[in-house]
């Protein structure tokens, strides 16, 4: 053992290796640093909470005023699940220490999407316009069921687009997982909404 | 290199209390260092160098500064490595002995990632049903889903979920409703009423009652006393006191990587059983 102390070069080498390994370990555990205010990650989280908020609003209306059991169940599911996700996105944003609101929706997703949003008066992909929301909220029963399905299908198509745009632009694990989950869930929900809607329409025709 | 040696010399001077030795220390050590480096590089010159080195070493005190510096650094480094290993090890691990249906993938998150990246096609999965989430009663309100395994642990289902807020049902429930609960992140505990008596049912019910995202119901002719299932995973046992039942519930209830629809609720689903002779979709 005492011989080791006479070989500074070896000691320095051992120390360097230990320090490097320790540094890597600490870095790996700590993960990457938090996304910034203008990052894709923050933009996605901000816009998704706004996007989800409208889905919750529509679903709560359908839950209270629709008539088809399956459609109202989907509405309940959307209202509760997307509320949970809104909480998740807000927690990310607060943890990252970035702003929760932005006057430039979809700016994180590149020129093309920013343009989309400008054309619809600041709405994100798939969101219902004020006129559509007003019309929807004048309906009850089967009419509300069908319009809810139509609005929500468009809403989900837009949501899937946003998730894809985020996936292409980020390697943040939190965001990737959430985006992938949005894609898989909303795609299967679109199919379910279409089927249940067609069911209601067929029943009305009969 | 040069700066390191300087630091080391300073260190040795500081930690030595006798003035006479301090003066000798740095010079002697420099020599020793040289000799050792050479010795390490070329073996042929080793004897001569070693002798010279030893001669100097006799008078040289232990370089305590150097020793403590490197020991300190080493301890800190090992501590950090140990802490990192512990943090990784301390993450929750799935209980052993669970049957999972994800094939070569670890969980729902991984299999959907592979599908979205185009690494695999749905029909090529070992069990394509782990990613199928269609409401069977969508196209035909009277349709009832069929499952490859008993009890089912995922797949297409009915539009309504079975309420799973720590719900204990005393009669069988519809598979299609229970699978919808699994999609929401619930664990479904089933028992074979021919193999579990009243006291046993009591024991099992205690595991579920009051525990959100869990539900329990009898499952006649299951052939095993107890089966617990979450989306894509299942564990069967004939021992109602098997601790794996609790481990399974702890790990899989609301498991973010495993629930097909995390964030969804268990409240406000169907609360009737087949004994109520309700329509499947309520």
Classified in CATH, the superfamily of the largest domain in chain A is Ferritin, core subunit, four-helix bundle
Q: Assign a percent range to the helix content of chain B.
A: 40-55%
Rg of Cα set of chain A: 24 Å
* CATH fold topology of the largest domain in chain A: Ferritin
| Uncertain stretches of 5 or more adjacent residues of chain A | none
N-to-C SSE series of chain B? HHHHEHEHEHEEEH
Q: Strands of the largest sheet of chain B, in order across it? A: 1-6-5-3-4-2
Under the CATH scheme, the architecture of the largest domain in chain A is: Up-down Bundle
Number of domains of chain B: 2
Count of DSSP H/I helices of chain B: 8
Measured distance between first and last alpha carbons of chain A: 92 Å
Straight-line N-to-C gap of chain B? 79 Å
Task: Please give the largest β-sheet of chain A.
Answer: none
One letter per element, helices H and strands E, the order of chain A comes to: HHHHHHH
Structural class of chain B: alpha/beta
* The top level CATH class name of the largest domain in chain A: Mainly Alpha
Keywords (chain A): Coiled coil
Coiled coil (chain A): 176-203
Domain DUF305 (chain A): 41-195
InterPro entries (chain A): DUF305_CopM-like (IPR005183), Ferritin-like (IPR012347)
What does this protein look like?
Chain A: It comes from Glycomyces niveus. Chain A: InterPro entries: DUF305_CopM-like, Ferritin-like. Chain A: Keywords: Coiled coil. Chain A: Residues 176-203 form a coiled coil. The complex is a heterodimer of chains A (206) and B (282). Chain A is mostly helical and 206 residues long. Chain A has seven helices and no strands. Chain A has helices at residues 8-30, 40-65, 69-96, 111-119, 130-136, 141-169, 173-205. The model of chain A has no long low-confidence stretch (mean pLDDT 89). By secondary structure, chain B is an alpha/beta fold. Chain B folds into two domains: 2-89, no CATH class; 99-276, no CATH class. Chain B is 41% helix and 9% strand. Chain B contains eight helices and six strands, in the order H-H-H-H-E-H-E-H-E-H-E-E-E-H. Chain B has helices spanning 2-15, 19-41, 46-59, 64-89, 108-116, 175-183, 198-208, 243-252, and strands spanning 99-100, 165-168, 187-191, 214-218, 226-230, 233-237. Chain B has a six-stranded mixed sheet with strand order 1-6-5-3-4-2. In chain B, helix 7 (198-208) links the parallel strand 3 (187-191) and strand 4. In chain B, helix 2 packs antiparallel against helix 3 (46-59). Chain B starts with a helix and ends in a 30-residue tail after the last helix. At the A-B interface, helix 1, helix 3 and helix 7 of A face helix 1, helix 2, helix 4 and helix 5 of B.
